[in-house]
Design goal:
With 248 residues, the chain is α/β, with parallel strands linked by helices. Helices cover 45% and strands 17% of the residues. The strands form two sheets. The protein has a five-stranded parallel beta sheet. Strands 5-4-3-9 form a four-stranded antiparallel beta sheet, with helices on one face. A hairpin with a 2-residue loop joins strand 4 and strand 5. One of its GO terms (cellular component) is cytosol.
């Protein structure tokens, strides 16, 4: 981080489909901050493991792969619905990591303690870049427990499934609501019961129910919390740009 720069870290956690990405990206835009979803690193790892034939239960090989992972995340270069670009070894994998298969594999590979330890350093390095809105499932409890602003977004399982179904439909993927409900319920169970960094709200997180609320209403609620808890929110920045992520 540049000396004298205004540091602002907003941690947004919640289960899949709770609105973290949509809300987080808009909050970051209004704060002049970089937006980053930590799930990206697990999705990229899952994609790379799939391409290299590494099983999702092979913790040792996955951890080795994670230690050498090199990703670049930045503002969207194409207006095709993406919230940001994700590059892996020089290729755009933004949509390749957003398939139902990668959804499933990312949850499996993220359950391994060695993998989470290897990728934790990448996530923390990004959060130290100055002004960042970072979304995930354990940001406020593990990745950035010292973040001045911690938000937990809640939504019912049925509402989250409807949102996921709409997102998939926009990409030409047709799935039944019942199938998506079952998948999300299974993922919730895995995320909440894993041995390391289980999904749960931080004790000092502000919990926001996103059911029956518009995106704008949720964004404004988050911004109100940011302004209350962090004076830095009033100092905009034009520095949000491409963030290279590479394991040390």
């Amino acid at each position: 981080m540049v000396a004298g720069a205004c540091q602002l870290v907003v941690a947004i956690d919640g289960p899949a489909g709770s609105g973290k990405s949509t809300v987080g990206a808009e909050v970051a835009k209004r704060l002049g901050a970089l937006y980053f979803d930590t799930g990206v690193v697990y999705r990229v790892l899952a994609l790379l493991a799939l391409e290299r034939g590494i099983a999702p239960d092979d913790a040792e090989r996955l951890a080795q792969l994670a230690q050498n992972l090199s990703i670049r995340v930045g503002p969207p270069s194409i207006q095709d619905g993406r919230l940001y670009d994700v590059w892996l070894d020089g290729r755009d994998v933004t949509w390749a990591i957003r398939t139902p298969e990668i959804d499933r594999l990312a949850s499996l590979v993220s359950a391994h303690p060695p993998v989470r330890r290897a990728l934790l350093r990448l996530q923390r390095e990004l959060a130290r870049n100055g002004r960042v809105v970072i979304a995930g499932r354990d940001i406020g409890t593990v990745v950035m427990p010292e973040a001045p602003v911690k938000i937990w977004l809640h939504a019912s399982l049925e509402e989250r499934a409807r949102r996921r179904q709409r997102d998939l439909a926009r990409r030409g993927i047709v799935r039944s609501l019942e199938e998506i409900v079952a998948e999300l319920a299974d993922r919730d169970r895995r995320d909440a019961t894993r041995a390391i960094a289980p999904m749960r709200p931080a004790e000092d997180a502000v919990i926001i129910d996103t059911d029956d609320r518009t995106i704008e209403e949720v964004v404004e609620t988050v911004l109100a919390v940011v302004r209350e808890r962090c004076e830095c929110a009033n100092h905009g920045s034009d520095s949000a740009g491409v963030a290279p992520l590479a394991a040390p």
